[in-house]
Amino acid sequence: MAAFSGDILKGNTLTLILTLIEEQPMYGFQIAKEIGRRSEGTFRFREGLLYPALHQLEQEGLVESEWRFSSQGPRRKYYRLSPRGRREAARLRKRWWAFSSAVNQVLGGQSGE
Q1: For the whole model, what pTM was predicted?
Q2: Domain count, the chain
């Protein structure tokens, strides 16, 4: 499967990040790695996309962060959802499902080549 980047990925970055850290607190590289794993390499979050998005989410009060020590190296900044972030994650997922459903209806509901 082709890797996606650019506008299609940027438009869904916040939804993907919020959904992941809703499950458990994660640090930046862990988020990028998990998105790549779950998408089977289709999504590749580079530092230039991921960290500005995390900073934006933190400024908007959707995520909170804390530094934790690691036994495998330097401290890591972990991100977790705030209560407002949980509501926003749910809203963004609902919006995504409505959008993707409408696109699939237009395309005929098939994932063609």
Answers
A1: 0.84
A2: 1
